[in-house]
């Protein structure tokens, strides 16, 4: 019967990696760690212990370049993978880091800012009020035509052409 989960092959790889790590060079330690990760043994206690022992032994006399390789070797065993995850849809939501959703974002906005009455008025962008609008209209018309003179001109004009010429003359 075939070994569906390849357990026999993984066990053989593990045995060989444990044998080789004892006398491995810095470069070989990195290769062994990559092989362990590739076989899914990055969380295997006996592999971790053997790598830890060999890295400690090699680190004392290692150059900076070799220390970098040893660091990469250790990192290979520290990185965990999520089995079967092909996208974030396959990952379970945490308790502190929650997924972004439109409804969650909307709820946060409504909670902190229920309506525009919660906004303070700025110094440049002012709220609309009838009084401000009236003041702007009056300020724009003042100096050109007064409302009183406009009423007088409209009353004195018999037709629109006469009205236009009387306004132009003001």
Compile the SSE list and pairings.
Layout: H1 7-21, H2 26-38, H3 45-59, H4 64-78, H5 102-112, H6 130-141, H7 147-156, H8 160-169
Helix pairs in contact: 1-2, 1-3, 2-3, 2-4, 3-4
Descriptive account of the structure:
There is one protein chain. The chain is built from eight helices and no strands. Helix content is 59%, strand content 0%. Helix 1 runs antiparallel to helix 2 and helix 2 packs parallel to helix 4. The relative contact order is 0.06. The protein is mostly helical and 170 residues long. It is rod-shaped and about 115 Å long. Among the domains are: 72 residues, no CATH class; 40 residues, no CATH class.
- Sheet bearing the most strands, described? none
Average pLDDT over all residues: 80
H-E string: HHHHHHHH
Query: Structural class given helices, strands, pairing?
Result: mainly alpha
- Cα distance spanning the termini: 108 Å
Q: What does the overall shape look like? A: rod-shaped
> Helical segment tally?
8
Q: Outline the low-pLDDT stretches.
A: none
Radius of gyration: 40 Å
Beta fraction: under 5%
Helix fraction, binned, reads 55-70%
**How many strand elements?**
0
